[in-house]
Structures are given as structure tokens and as C-alpha cells.
Task: structure prediction
Amino acid sequence: MNFNGQIITATVSDHNDKQVFVQYDGITMAVDVAEFEQVPAIGNPVSGFAYENTHGDARLTTKLPKVGHDHYAFGTVVEVRRDLGVFVNIGLPDKDIVVSLDQLPELTRLWPNRGDRLMVQLMIDKKHRLWGSLADESIIRAVANRAKPEMKNQDVTATVYRLKMAGTHVLTDDFYLGFIHPAERDVEPRLGEVVHARVIGVKDGELNLSLKPRAFEAIDDDAGMVLAVLEHSPNHQIAFTDKSDPEAIKQAFGISKAAFKRALGHLMKAKKIRQHDGITELL
Result:
């Protein structure tokens, strides 16, 4: 089908309870009857997206996919085939598009998983088969917004679109470019992975991001433990502060004085405690 993946106008030739049949260039295609408010009469024109479904059947849909030729959009990964690539849902009811393994990282552990997102466009090979083609750097930059310095310390959600030795390149949900240095992550994210990051800097309109938690967020377990002790102590007080003896803190709480101080700092920031006269009390 040499018009596979194209928007065409075909002519209604027949219909039944489930499908409307249309013809174009000598080929009959089926359209789901649910796509019409009223079944079109034989001979009427119907415009839509022509494609071959998973079973190789010729289909037409009036509901255009979000991805097209020279039109990029995010699709969701629905299947991974190590011998072929990944299948991406672009909005067709019975057809997913393959992004070839040739476009994916050499390390398969960095391939997208189900649920990850890839920005793709449609391409057709010499055999008139549909494939997904990843957006390159120039396309990503063309759709990106320019970040402002006041975005520093904000939390963002972003999708990984490029993996480099120097670090991870992402595009945020608000279409800002972001970069994650290897020092700002514990594990390298996958291509297409959606990550939650914080802005640690803005340079030349792009975000420098970190996947590591803020210091007060990183000690949630310690802070939670101190909070639990306070809640179960008489008068909701403990005879410890950030000035207490390190060994006494270690013996009582099993953590270092530095960790104890950070935990108290977290709780004070959250307005859950106060320190005075050598004690810490629950507010």
C-alpha cells in the first residue's frame, strides 16, 4: 500500500454494522463505524489516515494520530523487542509504530521501558512500511522555551531525549531544555524515562538539573524517627538539641550528630518542633 501513513480522501463502497468500507487507488479499506455520527452513503467521500494494522489489513481512520510526517509528538512505549526495537503508541486504535533498535542506545539497559515516552515522527521505508523516527537535537531545540533565572530551585518533570557521556539531556513538561550531569544522579536514566528533578542552575536559557534530593529531603527517615520519638515521649519533649554530645546522640538515636542536626533542621523547617533550654519539643 504505497499511500500507507498518508492522509487521503477515499470513496464509500459498502458498510455493515461494524465497518464502513472505502476505496482509494483500487484498494478497499475498513473504517470503524463508531467513528461516524451517521453512516455515510455509498459514493460519499471520507477523509482520514490510511495505514495497515497489526494484522496487515488496510484501514482508514478519521481520527488522525498525533504523530505524522514532519510532525513530531510524544508517543508512549508499549512493548520492547530486543531483536527489533520498541513499539510506540501514537494514537492509532490497532497499530503501534516501531522505533528501530538502530536508533536506540547500544546498552539495552538504557532502552526505554513500557510507559516511557519518545518524541517521534513517521517515516516510510522502501517497502512502504511505517516506522517511528526519533526527534534529533535540532527538532527538540526548535520546540523548546527559554528558561529564566528565577526557575532555580523549582521542581520539574522531564523526559529524557538524549544520552551522552557528558550527561543526560531532557525536555521538561513545560518544554524547557535541561541537562543532568553524572554527578547529579545516582543511576543513569533510560532514554524516554520520565524523571522528577530540581533546578540547580540556569545558564544560557537552559536548566541544570539534579535528580538528587535536597539535603532536608534526603533525611526524611532520620527526621521521621526523631518525630516518632517525640510523639511517644512524656510531654512530647526530649533532652537533646543540636548542641548535644555526639556520643549521647549516637547511643540514643543510632545516628551521627550531623544526621541528627539535619533531622532537627528538617523538622524545624516544617514547623514541627522548637529547641530551647537544652530540650527539643513537639509543636
Observations:
- The mean pLDDT is 93.
- The longest strand covers residues 155-164.
- Residues 79 and 87 are 5 Å apart (CA to CA).
